[in-house]
UniProtKB/TrEMBL annotation:
Belongs to the purine nucleoside phosphorylase YfiH/LACC1 family. It comes from Solibacter usitatus (strain Ellin6076). This is Purine nucleoside phosphorylase. It catalyses: adenosine + H2O + H(+) = inosine + NH4(+); inosine + phosphate = alpha-D-ribose 1-phosphate + hypoxanthine; adenosine + phosphate = alpha-D-ribose 1-phosphate + adenine; S-methyl-5'-thioadenosine + phosphate = 5-(methylsulfanyl)-alpha-D-ribose 1-phosphate + adenine. Gene3D superfamilies: CNF1/YfiH-like putative cysteine hydrolases. The keyword 4Fe-4S does not apply. Keywords: Hydrolase, Metal-binding, Transferase, Zinc. One of its GO terms (molecular function) is copper ion binding.
Length: 213
């Protein structure tokens, strides 16, 4: 279950039970970078590329998903309508932060990040928790026919990116009860979230992060 803490960060109750984990989804009022000496991030390019941080800090390359298994390491992605997904391996203590826009979602980036966790760190899918953070909701995300066709729709359509990421994760074996969705629309909730579709170039960015104590 998602809740907002006193620092204006959304967290997941079920993930709070993992004492080694730090995680959260930022809001307009949460200064995530100030809480950590240095985050590991990527130059986001709306791709399906997943990189491993390996304890490094700063911008470590181009891509849209970042893995970490190093104590003290924190990985983060930035969004302003795209869907942030955090993947947590409770057994191997591996985390991933994923930026899933329509291109990344169509390219199955969240599922791809989990596959990378399996290949690099021997993650077992039954040990994985997934948190799907605030992003633009189906209520506000109307797309043209070309994009809609990537999600099995005809003509202009409203697309549910969060639901599609959930479906892809369930399809590769993540336990449905271990997938937590915020169901918070960044475009609807202007008081809490930045939204590129709503605010255009004036939009800020929201940090979503996961790390190992």
């Amino acid at each position: 279950m998602f809740y907002r803490d006193p620092q204006h960060i959304y967290r997941v109750t079920e993930l709070d039970a993992l004492p080694w984990l730090v995680h959260g989804f930022g809001t307009r009022l949460a200064d995530i970078p100030a809480q950590f000496a240095q985050l590991a991030t990527v130059k986001q390019i709306h791709s399906s590329t997943c990189l491993a941080a390996g304890g490094r800090r700063g911008v470590i390359g181009e891509g849209d998903a970042l893995l970490e298994n190093t104590p003290g390491g924190v990985v983060a992605v930035k969004t302003a309508d795209c869907i942030p997904v955090l993947l947590i391996d409770e057994r191997q203590k591996v985390v991933a932060a994923v930026h899933a826009g329509w291109r990344g979602t169509a390219g199955r980036i969240a599922a791809g990040a989990l596959e990378a966790m399996r290949e690099r760190f021997a993650t077992r899918v039954e040990d994985v928790h997934a948190a799907i953070g605030p992003g633009i909701g189906k209520c506000c995300y109307e797309v043209g026919a070309e994009v809609a066709a990537l999600f099995g729709e005809r003509g202009r359509a409203h697309i549910d990116l969060a639901a599609e990421n959930r479906r892809q994760l369930e399809e590769i074996g993540v336990t449905p009860s271990k997938i937590y969705a915020s169901n918070l629309c960044t475009m609807c909730r202007a008081e809490e979230f930045h939204s590129f579709r709503r605010d255009k170039e004036a939009a800020g960015r929201l940090h979503s992060f996961a790390g190992i104590r």
